[in-house]
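For practice. Any example?
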Amino acid sequence: MANVDFRWSSAKNNPGVVQLMELDNGVVQITMKDEEYRNTFSPGLIDGLYKCFGAVAENNNYKVVILTGYGNYFCSGGTKEELIKIHNREIKFNDLDFYRIALDCKIPVIAAMQGHGIGGGLVLGLYSDVVVLSEESIYTTNFMRYGFTPGMGGTLIVPAKFGDILGQEMMYTAQNYRGKDLAKRGISIPVLPRKEVLGYARKIAAQLAEKPRLSLVTLKGHLTSGIRKRMPELIDREVAMHDITFHQPEVAAFIDANFGEVSSHKSLPPVQKRFNEEEKILAQLQAGEISLENAESLLLDINQTSSSEEKILSQLQSGEISLENAESLLLDINQTSSSEEKILSQLQSGEISLENAESLLLDINQTSSSEEKILSQLQS
């Protein structure tokens, strides 16, 4: 590995954050399980990765590594504190090279990305030799959502894994992609139901482990030589771009906003508002403030609301409805959304019971459906 600082004593202070488990025939599984920080780049997670991959480097009996997360999380990327430190010029993303730890591992690494891969967390997994995604999980290169350019070698590895067109789209827009949506876009990476991801990765690992270790090491060295050769210059360019983009005043504001500390962005365009709303939900999910079920429901509501708004605007542009009707319909959508948010807020604060909240939300949805049906009949 390149310039790896194992920091053994620090790692020992975080038992269980990253776990190494030996499977059959030289296969070893490394599981990131920092439940407190939802697998963000916490000191415990970074130290645990160094420790476990260091153990792999010292054992010549190992042939294949499976890298995975826990529950609904693969890896959630940088913490707010880390981003603020980079913004304040206290650190640079390349001060530690843990993000390329799968690339620097001599034996093949299979990333069983059963959960969300966010920002640097996605890039971490993409450095693996084989990648498996889950249909339900969210994958995003959300660097530009904070206003700074991608780092960690993302400008190289993301297009390499997802293809130039989709990879560039992901980096420019910084939007969230479900695994099933990426599969529809034709990526070559296998995408399976979450419950099948780890089993599939273990099956591939067993096939690789049938080969001699020396052959696996030799082949990996050859297949990764191109990326290794390009990495130093590319990292220098990304650091130079950070020097230009990371220290803008807007970046600090975007970091605060996307970590849930700023709730209003009236001046932002609708698409950016939607992305910020999605990121706020993900931040609440990472912080344990809401459950995965609630987060997925909220994300679905955002997308459905967005689709309804886009449909109304399209009908307005085509002359199917008048400006007055369009404004009225958009107002109804926003009022419905506000009502739902108020009910969820009351539920979280304990002002109303889950039963009452579900009843109120059902009433809103039924009313909305009835209104849409009436309007549809009128238009036809």
In short: The radius of gyration is 23 Å. Residues 292-318 form the longest helix (27 residues). DSSP finds 16 helices and ten strands in the chain. The mean pLDDT is 80.
